[in-house]
Amino acid sequence: MSRLQSRFAALKAENRAALVTFVTGGDPDYDTSLAILKGLPAAGADVIELGMPFTDPMADGPAIQLANIRALSGKMTLAKTLNMVREFRQGNQDTPLVLMGYFNPIHHYGIARFVEEAKTAGVDGLIVVDLPPEHNEDLCEPAQTAGLDFIRLTTPTTDDKRLPVVLNGSSGFVYYVSVAGVTGANAATMDHVEQAVTRLRRHTDLPLCIGFGIRTPAHAADVARRAEGVVVGSALVDQIANATSPQQAVDGVLSLCAELAEGVCNARH
Amino acid sequence: MTSLCAGPNHKGLFGQFGGQYVAETLMPLIHDLAAEYEKAKVDPEFAKELAYFQRDYVGRPSPLYFAERLTEYCGGAKIYLKREELNHTGAHKINNCIGQILLARRMGKKRIIAETGAGMHGVATATVAARFGLECVIYMGTTDIDRQQANVFRMKLLGATVIPVTAGTGTLKDAMNEALRDWVTNVDSTFYLIGTVAGPHPYPAMVRDFQAVIGKETREQLHAQEGRLPDSLVACIGGGSNAMGLFHPFLDDQSVQIIGVEAAGYGIETGKHAASLNGGVPGVLHGNRTFLLQDDDGQIIDAHSISAGLDYPGIGPEHAWLHDIGRVEYTSVTDDEALAAFHQCCRLEGIIPALESSHALAEVFKRAPTLPKDHLMVVNLSGRGDKDMQTVMHHMQQTTETH
Question: If you count DSSP H runs as helices and E runs as strands, how many of each does chain A have, helices first?
Answer without folding.
Answer: 12, 9
